[in-house]
Structures are given as C-alpha cells and as structure tokens.
C-alpha cells in the first residue's frame, strides 16, 4: 500500500512479458500443422496411430504421435529453431531434414523385406530406410 492507503498502480507495460520471449518461440504454421495432421489422420485410418500431442520446448515445436494414449510417444516430429526438421523415436534421432516434405516422406516409404544375415556370409546387410 502507498502512503495514502491506496493500492500501488502497475502499468500494463510493466506487467507484460518482454517481446523477445515471444519472438524466440518456435511454432508450426497453419500449413505445416495441416500437412502433419493429414499424415496423422491417414495413419489413424489404418489403425497404426491413435493419439497425438502438440507442444513446445526451448528451440523447438513438437508433434508427438502415440500408438496408445498411456504410452511414451512412438515418434516426435520437431521443427527446430534453425529451420530444420527432426524425427525422433524416444531419445534416438531417426532423421534430420531441411524441409517438412523431406521429413514426412519418411513415413510414405513402403515396407520392404530384409532377409536375415547368416553367420559366415560375406553378403552386405541391406541399409535401413527407416
């Protein structure tokens, strides 16, 4: 209280967060979110994915995909502050790409047969597409 018995006055400018905090936040644009959601809904239709969450961490915006609601995310698709994109499976980084199109293309690759390698064979092991 002031000396006159009144409550102190705080100006709105002093009460607001600094503009630099909002300028540094990373977020999905409407187009980016629509493209990620289109992939999500296609996978929901096939029964592969069931839930998602959108969030932010310092320097990144995250779209997390879940197979079951009460589990850890199956994948996270992150937009990084340097303009790059990342897919992770838990703590393991699966892919880093320069565009959202390149990032989402990983999910459109079809399955392929990988034959097991037997001991003693010199045949190369097929590389993993994902």
Overall description:
- It is elongated and about 85 Å long.
- Helices cover 26% and strands 24% of the residues.
- The chain has a 5-stranded antiparallel beta sheet with strand order 1-2-3-4-5.
- It is built from 4 helices and 5 strands.
- The protein has a domain at 25-108.
- The protein is of the alpha+beta class and 130 residues long.
- β4 (85-89) and β5 (92-97) form a beta hairpin.
What topology does this entry show?
Blueprint: H1 12-15, H2 19-23, H3 30-45, E1 51-57, E2 60-66, E3 75-80, E4 85-89, E5 92-97, H4 100-108
Antiparallel strand pairs: 1-2, 2-3, 3-4, 4-5
Strand proportion, as a percent range, falls in 15-25%
Strand element count? 5
Structural class: alpha+beta
Distance between the termini: 64 Å
Largest sheet, in brief, is: 5 strands, antiparallel
Global Rg: 23 Å
Pattern of helices and strands: HHHEEEEEH
Low-pLDDT segments, ≥5 res: 125-130
Helix count from the secondary structure assignment = 4
Helix content: 25-40%
Global mean pLDDT: 79
Inertia-based shape: elongated
Q: Strand order across the biggest sheet? A: 1-2-3-4-5
Question: Which labels suit this protein?
Answer:
single chain; 130 residues; 4 helices
What is the gist of this entry?
This protein has 130 residues and is α+β, with helices and mostly antiparallel strands. The protein has a domain at 25-108.
């Amino acid at each position: 209280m002031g000396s006159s018995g009144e409550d102190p006055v705080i100006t709105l400018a002093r009460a607001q967060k600094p503009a630099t905090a909002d300028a540094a936040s990373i977020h999905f644009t409407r187009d980016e979110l629509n493209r990620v959601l289109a992939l999500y809904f296609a996978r929901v239709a096939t029964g592969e994915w069931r839930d998602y969450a959108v969030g932010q961490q310092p320097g990144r915006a995250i779209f997390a995909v879940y197979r079951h609601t009460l589990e850890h995310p199956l994948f996270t698709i992150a937009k990084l502050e340097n303009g790059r994109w990342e897919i992770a499976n838990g703590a393991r980084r699966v892919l880093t790409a320069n565009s959202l199109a390149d990032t989402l293309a990983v999910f459109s690759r079809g399955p392929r047969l990988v034959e097991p390698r037997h001991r003693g064979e010199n045949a190369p092991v097929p590389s993993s597409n994902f």
